Amino acid sequence: MSRPHAGPPADVLAALRDRRSRPLLTAPAPGHDELRELLTAACSAPDHGRLRPWRFIVVDEAARGPLGDAFAAAQAERDPAASPAELERARAKALRAPLIVVVVGTPRPHPTVPLWEQRASAACVAHGLVLAADSRGYGAMWRTGWFGDAPKVRAHLGLAEGEEVTGWIYLGTPAGSPPAPRTLSELPVSWLG
C-alpha cells in the first residue's frame, strides 16, 4: 500500500539531523537580500492564530560595537567591581560573528493562544533561522544569556515591555574544524499502548 504523502525529502531530514552550532564565525555573513530570504523561511514556523509573536533586530557589522558597549554597560551595572578585562570580555561578545540577528519574542494576551505557545513559536522561528542559514552554507550559533534581560541592553535594542530576547543568532562563515557528529545512544521515547 502506498503512502498518501511521503513527507519531507531526505535532505530535509539530513539537515535536521546533521546541523551543528558553529561558535567560530567569520565574514562573509549573509547579505541583505539573502538574509531577507532566510528570515522569510524562518517565519514559516508553527504559529497558532497567526499572531506572529516575534520580530527580528538585525545587528550588522557597524552596529556590533554599540551593542558591545551596551553589553559592557550592563556588566558594569550588574557587577560594579568588574575589572576592565571583564568589561572588555562582555563588549567582545558582540564581535563574535559578522552578523547577529536578535529574535525577539512578542507574546501578548490572547483568548485562545497561551503565552507559552507564543514563546514556543518564537523559539521555532529562531531554530528555523539557524536551519535556513545552514542550508545556505553559513554557520550559526544560537546564544542566550542574561544580557537580554539587562535594562541597558533592552533599552539599546528598543524592546517594549513584555518583549523577550528569545535568542541571539550569530551568523557568518564557519571557521575552524567542523564539530563532531552528534550521537544519540538511546531515543528518549515511550510508547502508550
List the keywords.
5-stranded antiparallel β-sheet, alpha+beta, 6 helices, 193 residues
How many E-type strands?
A: 5
Mean pLDDT: 94
In this structure, how is the largest beta sheet organized? 5 strands, antiparallel
Helix content: 25-40%
Task: Give the CA-CA distance, first to last residue.
Answer: 24 Å
| Strand fraction | 15-25%
Which shape, going by the Cα principal axes?
globular
Oligomer: single chain
Radius of gyration, whole Å: 19 Å
Low-confidence blocks of residues: none
Number of helices: 6
Secondary structure class reads alpha+beta
Succession of helices and strands = HEHEHHEHEHE
List the helices and strands and how they pair.
Blueprint: H1 10-18, E1 25-26, H2 32-42, E2 54-59, H3 61-78, H4 84-92, E3 99-105, H5 115-135, E4 139-143, H6 151-157, E5 164-174
Antiparallel strand pairs: 1-5, 2-3, 3-5, 4-5
Helix pairs in contact: 2-5, 3-4, 3-6
3D architecture notes:
With 193 residues, the protein is of the alpha+beta class. The chain is built from 6 helices and 5 strands, in the order αβαβααβαβαβ. Strands 1, 2, 3, 4 and 5 form a 5-stranded antiparallel sheet that branches. Helix 2 crosses helix 5.
